[in-house]
Specification:
The complex is a heterodimer of chains A (326) and B (700).
Chain A: E1 5-7, H1 12-18, E2 24-27, H2 33-38, E3 46-49, E4 58-60, E5 64-68, H3 73-78, H4 80-85, H5 87-95, H6 99-104, H7 107-112, H8 118-121, H9 163-169, E6 173-178, E7 181-186, E8 209-216, E9 224-229, E10 240-249, E11 252-261, E12 268-269, H10 271-277, H11 284-294, H12 307-323
Parallel strand pairs in A: 1-3, 2-3
Antiparallel strand pairs in A: 4-5, 5-8, 6-7, 6-8, 9-10, 10-11, 11-12
Helix pairs in contact in A: 5-9, 10-11, 11-12
Chain B: H1 16-20, E1 36-42, E2 48-54, H2 56-60, E3 64-68, E4 94-95, E5 101-107, H3 110-118, E6 121-126, E7 141-142, E8 147-149, E9 160-168, E10 180-186, E11 189-194, H4 199-210, E12 217-220, H5 236-248, E13 252-255, E14 271-279, E15 285-297, E16 318-328, H6 341-358, H7 363-369, E17 374-375, E18 380-381, H8 387-398, E19 410-412, E20 415-427, E21 433-440, E22 445-448, H9 458-470, E23 477-480, H10 497-520, H11 529-535, E24 540-547, E25 559-571, E26 577-587, H12 594-613, E27 619-620, E28 625-626, E29 645-649, H13 673-685
Parallel strand pairs in B: 1-13, 11-12, 15-16, 22-23, 26-29
Antiparallel strand pairs in B: 1-5, 2-4, 2-6, 3-5, 7-16, 8-16, 9-14, 10-11, 10-13, 14-15, 17-18, 19-20, 20-25, 21-22, 21-24, 25-26, 27-28
Classes of the chains: A alpha+beta (326), B alpha+beta (700).
Chain lengths: 326, 700
């Protein structure tokens, strides 16, 4: 890889100053960034290490659960507060990567990981995300892992995270620090669709830093489930994954949150299917109806047509688990 | 033979502690003063010529010592007079496949070499390429006349018959240890540290490449982190490293990266196989037709015996087979665990299951009904065959009688449960091999032989064999292997090492003991070696012995056999597949060291699970280039995918194969496993997937 500088600024303010220069990249766990650098997909001049910043805490607040951006995926997934208040997040995290990777990966880094589209990683292939204007290798290539929702003629890549699917379902809020102070945006609005600028994965500005996330308190703890369908039992990205969170009162669904992974450029929240579930009895019929609504508008490519069938099946199955039918 | 310092499980790996503590040194871990590093640039087109190589930026990059290509490479003696094999590095400007090594960049650190390699710009003149086997089946060329017994295509007139087609994809060996060459030239002498399954063979290859006498080429392959068949040839990457080291005149280390492991060191050819199979209504086989098409490179031919097992596995009067190869613009395939058999038996044993189902017959009963007592292809008795015992003991252990013949009969919490089985076989071969045994006054025994240990525990096996003859504790035995300076040993492939190298150790130790007894005028099973040496004022006694297959070969057919029983669970809604249990029953002759033998079978079954459910090298044929050349994208089985694997050894001596009575088991463990899984998936779901791997999308 290209030679680069490595700095470790003392404070958050120093970090914000350091990243405001072109050619800089933040490094936390490095589980994706180092691969990208080795393959030459990204070649920063300077790495800004933030691992020492005090952003690892997991704390209950008056309105929810605060998780620092540098909390490790493995730590969050085993944290008692998380397991008690937001078990869906723990399940989603444990479905991701491998134990070794989860021991290194951070919450903020997980959000910022790049797609695993093979054409993005191979410098000899066209890819609008890596090299805008070069074309999309996947569109007419091997697109088995690719999007069925929200794609553009420029890019059909998917976001690879499991954690983010869980956080999207849980209405998490992203806390972002900039040089002018903090801002908060809903998790579902953090990542973007490819549109005409697939090179941009999210709405984080170059000079901003994710400092944490907050998950508002909810009544989902008893009835949530993360189901990931994949080609092998560990260390494989989702063919389709579903985060399902239900608030059930006496057999009737009061509130439902659903998000899917492996289907879009961002964690894909299923608002219409959620609405359809509210007020419905807990039953396979209700779940099947919601699953059919969820799949409306999906578009498949040569190798991923199976997702049109797998996605609704996985939604129903996840809801069955969340509601206790299985 | 008497058990010495071991229990019924045998002895543990003699190098196990060194391996798990990281103390052992692999080929890329030798360091020398002034060592420099090489990085290989590989082609990014599948076919054509290089018209220009812009290496200016690379040459100017920090630490770069040389950029070597066909333009400036030194004359290679082995390339003279048209002897340079097409695809050899620096031979010419031809591109024969995507991922071909074409430029070697040498720098004073690995990082600098890799960075400079990324700056090389090659201009190509592209030509249309063919990399898709399916699109080239019509152009495939017949390899030989095939096999015929009785009447061809006799299955067609059978009362019950099937005609089916199976597809298997590319499998990449994906050994944990990347291939590496560390080489040190001293004038016209070279010392090479690398991964080699046949050290003396690789020494010969290097001698030919540089036109050197044997004493000028020393090859070390002390430890191997997996090879599975990929470690025998002197691959182009290794030739490039040796040429580069000679040119630069410094010790050079070249390690290929994971992506290059997909194109530079071989792979298992994909195959399309057609099987026609017919039987009488009561389940007696009438005919089998098995036609296979594989692929090879345009520049080099690789063949394997995909249809071989079909010719003898069952008692069937009419069998015909055929084998074709399509020449594609890909690197050349090579031996891959159970080469040929693994591919062919997947199809044969899937077809057996399909025909049993068509016959409404239990798949095990169907196989027993067509049990072959002798080898009908070779018209020879088996030197030993305990396949029937494998069926019986395996079925009892597994609980085969609980299988329901109708698919989708067993369901638990949304998961369909299915049982499947397969038969397998692999030739129990043996080759000439030499070993030296030396017993010294300190009471230690040294065994020397130029074999490798690519993972099975060769040194452990040789220690075990020697200890049982010499009758001294294993702690007092040291086995030295992995060097071309040692007595010639057979290559470590084809399940032959214990049989070949082990026989030479057995014979050398037996003669050594006789020599001691002769000196002492005794006939002891356990002579006092040290006292005899002291009495005769000798520092040591040694014997070097070459052992050859003993000539019974022509009168018997020798094979190892196995039966795999598999239980799978398939999720009805999502198609997710879990292997719940495997019972592998194996006739490997006398099992010499159960603990390492079991590991061999477990390793084979694990790869078989990977083959059944996930392994697939995927090429984007627009570019003729892999799109999953990483361990993240090319899936091999993880611990989570592998259930409890129970291994049953029949453990009966073969009277012919070798003095120990063993039959090789390195290859047979994987043979048939994928069929057993596929058959279990059918029993669970009623879905017959005929193109591996069986991924969830194929079951919903």
């Amino acid at each position: 890889m290209k030679q680069f500088q490595y700095v470790r600024p003392l404070t958050q303010q120093n970090v914000l100053d350091a990243i405001n220069k072109p050619g800089t990249k933040i490094i936390a766990g490095g589980t994706n960034l180092v691969d990208l650098m080795k393959r030459g997909v990204t070649a920063p001049d300077k790495l800004v290490d933030i691992n020492h910043l005090p952003l690892k805490g997991i704390t209950a607040t008056k309105t929810g659960l605060h998780i620092g951006a540098l909390a490790l995926n493995s730590v969050v997934s085993e944290n008692n507060l998380v397991i008690e208040k937001q078990p869906l997040l723990s399940m989603a995290l444990k479905a991701g990567a491998s134990p070794q990777l989860r021991n290194m990966a951070t919450v903020g880094g997980n959000m910022l990981q790049r797609t695993r589209c093979t054409y993005f990683y191979d410098l000899t292939m066209p890819c609008n995300k890596r090299n805008p204007g070069s074309g999309c290798g996947a569109m007419e290539g091997y697109n088995r892992m690719h999007a069925i929702f929200g794609a553009s003629p420029q890019c059909i890549a998917v976001h690879p995270s499991d954690m983010c699917v869980g956080l999207a379902a849980l209405d998490a809020v992203v806390i972002i620090a900039g040089r002018k102070g903090e801002r908060r945006i809903p998790f579902t609005e953090f990542h973007r669709l490819p549109g005409d600028h697939p090179e941009m994965d999210n709405h984080l500005a170059k000079d901003e830093l994710i400092v944490g996330i907050e998950i508002p308190d909810n009544n989902f703890a008893k009835n949530s489930y993360y189901l990931k369908v994949r080609d092998r039992q560990s260390y494989a990205f989702a063919l389709v994954s579903v985060a399902a969170a239900l608030d059930i009162d006496n057999g009737t669904i009061r509130k439902a949150h659903l998000a899917m992974g492996g289907v879009a450029h961002k964690p894909w929240r299923l608002f219409d299917a959620e609405k359809a579930l509210v007020g419905k009895p807990v039953s396979v019929d209700s779940f099947n109806q919601a699953a059919q609504i969820a799949i409306t508008g999906a578009k498949a490519y040569e190798y991923n047509a199976f997702k049109l069938k797998l996605a609704p099946a996985t939604i129903t199955e996840a809801l069955k688990h969340a509601s206790g039918l299985v | 033979m008497k058990e010495v310092a071991s229990n019924q499980e045998g002895i543990k790996r003699v190098d196990g502690h060194l391996k798990v503590t990281g103390a052992i040194r692999y080929s890329a871990e030798y360091h020398f003063s002034g060592l420099v590093y090489g990085a290989l640039v590989s082609s990014t087109i599948a076919k054509g010529t290089m018209t220009a190589i812009d290496s200016k930026a690379a040459e100017r990059a920090p630490g770069v010592l040389a950029v070597i290509s066909h333009i400036n490479a030194p004359e290679v003696p082995g390339y003279k007079d048209g002897k340079g094999q097409p695809g050899s590095p620096f031979l010419n400007n031809q591109i024969l496949y995507n991922g071909q090594p074409v430029v070697l960049v040498i720098a004073n650190t690995l990082e600098r070499a890799k960075y400079a390699a990324s700056l090389i710009k090659i201009t190509y003149k592209e030509e249309p390429h063919q990399t898709n086997l399916d699109n080239n089946l019509q152009n495939a060329v017949k390899m030989g006349e095939g096999y015929l017994r009785g009447e061809a295509d006799a299955y067609q007139s059978a009362p019950v018959k099937i005609e089916v087609e199976y597809r298997t994809p590319i499998h990449v060996h994906n050994a944990m240890e990347p291939f590496a060459v560390t080489s040190v030239w001293d004038g016209d002498k070279v010392t090479v540290y690398t991964k080699s399954q046949y050290i003396k063979g690789m020494q010969q290859d290097i001698m030919r490449l540089f036109n050197l006498p044997e004493q000028n080429v020393q090859v070390y392959s002390k430890v191997i982190g997996g090879a599975f068949g990929s470690g025998s040839p002197l691959w182009p990457y290794a030739k490039a490293a040796l040429i580069g080291a000679k040119m630069i005149g410094k010790p050079l280390k070249v390690v290929i990266d994971r992506e290059q492991m997909f194109t530079m060191v071989g792979y298992r050819s994909p195959a399309v196989q057609k099987i026609g199979m017919g039987a009488s209504a009561d389940g007696k086989l009438i005919g089998i037709t098995h036609d296979a098409t594989g692929e090879t490179a345009t520049y080099q031919r690789f063949t394997e015996g995909i249809t071989d097992t079909t010719c003898f596995l069952y008692d069937c009067p009419n069998i015909n087979t055929g084998y074709k190869l399509a020449k594609l613009d890909l690197s050349v395939p090579t031996y891959t665990r159970g080469p040929g058999e693994t591919t062919g038996v997947y199809a044969l044993e899937s077809a057996m299951d399909e025909l049993a189902h068509a016959l409404h017959m239990d798949p095990l009963a169907f196989r027993l009904k067509n049990y072959a007592e002798t080898n009908l292809q070779q018209n020879l008795p088996y030197s030993s065959k305990y396949l029937r015992e494998c069926y019986e003991q395996g079925a009892a252990q597994f609980g085969w009688d609980k299988r329901k013949p109708e698919p989708r009969s067993i369901e638990k919490d949304g998961w369909l449960v299915g049982y499947g089985l397969s038969t397998g076989a692999y030739w129990a071969g043996r080759a000439p091999s030499t070993a030296k045994a030396k017993l010294s006054t300190d009471g230690t025994l040294l065994i020397q032989t130029a074999t490798s240990d690519m993972g099975p525990g060769t040194a452990t096996m040789m220690t075990k064999i020697a200890s049982e003859i010499i009758n001294i504790p294993v702690e007092n035995i040291r086995v030295e292997l992995g060097s071309s300076a040692l007595p010639h040993a057979a290559g470590e492939y084809g399940s032959m090492t214990t049989s070949s190298v082990g026989s030479s150790v057995y014979d050398a130790c037996t003669e050594l003991k006789t020599k001691f007894n002769q000196l002492a005028g005794s006939n002891a099973d356990n002579p006092d070696y040290v006292k005899i040496l002291q009495d005769h004022k000798l520092p040591y006694l040694e014997i070097t012995k070459q052992s050859n297959p003993d000539g019974h070969g022509g009168k018997y057919s020798s094979y190892a056999f196995n039966v795999n029983f598999v239980e799978v669970h398939v999720h009805q809604a999502t198609g997710m597949i879990k292997i719940a249990r495997v019972v592998a029953a194996v006739d490997g002759g006398k099992i010499l060291n159960p603990i390492t033998a079991r590991s061999q079978i477990i390793g084979g079954v694990v790869w078989g699970i990977g083959m059944a459910l996930m392994e697939e090298g995927v090429i984007d044929h627009r570019y003729g280039r892999y799109v999953n050349s990483s361990l993240g994208d090319y899936h091999i089985a993880t611990n989570a995918d592998v259930p409890q694997i129970e291994v049953i050894f029949i453990d009966k001596k073969d009277p012919v194969t070798n003095p120990m009575g063993s039959k090789g088991i390195g290859e047979v463990g994987i043979v048939g496993v994928a069929a057993a899984v596929a058959n279990a998936v059918f029993n669970a779901t009623g879905v017959r997937v005929r193109d591996l791997p069986i991924t969830p999308d194929k079951l919903i």
